[in-house]
Specification:
binds glutamic acid; nine-stranded mixed sheet; single chain; alpha/beta; globular
Length: 297
């Protein structure tokens, strides 16, 4: 029997209504206007309102946001990161991230303050998970913030992350965060409706998959070579990798289209939106081991 089908299964969706600890990831392409690369304030505003409303329902909320490098490039007037050498390119990227992360947080803080919601910033690298003491500290910080009713806003620490210590994309980062904090649900908001049997932009016969019960090799192979949009770093491959981490550590995951941010409360209301990956907690799922092997597989 195939591990996925195109039928809807209300039971698993019904269970989504009970989820208490929610991680939401939003990608760069969802945060900026495609035509100009400037931030989409309306969408940001709607996102923040949705998150505050979920928080008001008594649920724990964590936001994983991309967009630092894109915002920084915009601020210093660089269209693309090109340069004479890889080292120089890395330095430019890190400088853009330093400028952009602060700008991004300034906007988030302003928007969250409008709803009287306290927000915090957490920046991570691979070392945050691989190193036992770092992981322990990060876990404690998240737990404490959530206990205080704060919404942590997470990104990779792009200003210091080089190849050796980078997680590399925020799909993977959000799944790692979900696993670290024992979340119940991870929602990846992106510029696609969810998982299809093939690339719907190229194959009109591609069928939408509303639910995945088991992540098979066949399915993981489907995402290979997919790069998605040209902003951000996540395509379908990184989303399936995220699904592997999330479901393996016992977290359900939904991929959904961010073009209407209201999709977030419809998902949490158990409605059939996006693709739901049903979790299967693997006995002894080794998060640091998994993160340590990233980019080496
Ligand atoms: N951390 C990067 C940024 O904030 C984005 C990574 C991603 O989009 O996956 O710009």
């Amino acid at each position: 029997m195939a591990a996925f089908n195109t039928e809807k299964k209300p039971a698993a969706r019904e269970a989504v209504r009970e989820k208490r600890r929610i991680v939401v990831k939003i990608g760069s392409s969802s945060l900026q206007h495609a035509q100009t690369g400037d931030l989409d304030y309306i969408r940001l505003e709607k996102l923040v309102r949705e998150l505050c409303d979920i928080r008001n329902q008594g649920k724990d909320v964590i936001l994983v946001t991309s967009g630092a490098i894109a915002a920084g490039r915009k601020a210093v007037g660089i269209r693309e990161i090109t340069g004479e050498s890889p080292e120089r390119q890395m330095a430019v990227k890190q400088a853009c991230a330093a400028v952009g992360q602060a700008r991004l947080m300034m906007i988030y803080q302003k928007l969250f303050a409008e709803y009287n919601q306290v927000a915090a910033q957490i920046l991570m690298t691979k070392n945050t998970i691989v190193d036992d003491l770092n992981r322990f500290n990060a876990h404690n910080t998240f737990s404490q913030l959530l206990e205080m009713g704060v919404i942590p806003i997470v990104n990779e620490n792009d200003t210091v992350a080089t190849y050796e210590i980078e997680i590399g994309d925020n799909d993977t980062l959000s799944a790692i965060v979900a696993a670290l904090v024992d979340a119940d649900l991870l929602v990846l908001l992106s510029d696609i409706d969810g998982l299809y049997t093939d690339d719907p932009r190229q194959n009109p016969d591609a069928a939408f998959i509303p639910q995945v019960d088991e992540l098979t090799e066949e399915l993981l192979a489907m995402g290979k070579g997919s790069t998605g949009s040209n902003v951000g770093t996540g395509g379908m491959n990184t989303k399936l990798q995220a699904a592997r981490i999330a479901t393996g550590s016992g977290v359900d995951m939904v991929i959904a289209n961010s073009k209407d941010i209201g999709i977030l409360h419809r998902i949490l209301d158990g409605r059939e939106e996006g693709t739901l990956f049903v979790s299967h907690r693997e006995e002894g799922f080794d998060l640091p081991g998994f993160v340590n092997r990233l980019h080496r597989q």
